[in-house]
Specification:
- 54% of the residues lie in helices and 13% in strands.
- Helix 2 (34-43) packs across helix 3, helix 2 packs across helix 4 (79-96) and helix 6 crosses helix 7 (139-161).
- The chain is an alpha/beta fold.
- A five-stranded parallel sheet has the order 2-5-1-6-7.
- The protein is built from eight helices and seven strands.
- It has helices at residues 15-26, 34-43, 47-53, 79-96, 107-110, 123-133, 139-161, 177-200; strands spanning 5-9, 30-31, 68-70, 76-78, 101-103, 115-120, 173-176.
């Protein structure tokens, strides 16, 4: 497989875990939160600022200069836009170095020739998975959190790509982790990639 693989995911579906396992199976690099520090270094902005805007739109006060970083004295660009551009540049740079797995951050739209996967699951399965990871949490609060993160990701994706997050036509493969778990999804994705490699050879 000589292409970059992007993984988009509903919160709690295990998309990140799938990305890690797939990268390990294929022997290629994996990138998720690492993109934040790379992009922060590129434009010399604190990592904390990037984390504030990570995969969601922040409604900014246009009079608050803390949310702007001037490229020049006469032109200022909203921080959220600068961060998206910086992360997109990092994504393209990583892709130019060879195959890798990139999670989220609109990578499926930033790159023109990637293999794009979407991981989803029913709400009850995602709540159960997250409760296993965070057993001290309240189930109702966890559902609220899952819906909030999904909404932010959807809005972010729509804002920067103009496309619909989670729409099957925007991806090459959509897998339901609620039915077969992350390992089942890994087997399905590996089989799909094997067929793809056969077709391309």
């Amino acid at each position: 497989m000589n292409k970059v693989i992007t993984v988009s995911r509903e919160f709690g579906s295990g998309g990140r875990e799938l990305g890690v396992k797939l990268a390990d199976a294929l022997g290629i690099p994996f990138y998720d939160k690492e993109l934040i520090s790379m992009a922060a270094d590129d434009i010399n902005i604190a990592e904390e600022a990037f984390r504030r805007y990570d995969e969601h739109i922040v409604v900014e006060d246009p009079l608050d200069r803390n949310f702007y970083h001037a490229f020049s004295d006469i032109y200022q660009v909203p921080m959220s836009d600068q961060i998206f551009v910086a992360q997109s540049n990092v994504i393209r740079r990583l892709a130019s170095h060879g195959p890798c797995i990139i999670v989220g951050r609109c990578a499926d739209m930033v790159l023109e020739d990637s293999i794009n996967i979407f991981v989803y699951a029913k709400m009850k399965n995602r709540i159960r998975r997250m409760m296993e990871l965070e057993p001290e949490s309240d189930e109702k609060e966890m559902e609220r959190r899952i819906r909030e993160v999904d909404r932010k990701r959807k809005d972010y994706y729509q804002y920067y790509t103009g496309n619909t997050w989670g729409k099957a036509q925007n991806y090459h493969l959509c897998v339901d982790s609620g039915l077969v778990g992350v390992d089942g999804c890994l087997r399905a994705v590996t089989a799909y990639l094997g067929e793809l490699c056969r077709d391309l050879s």
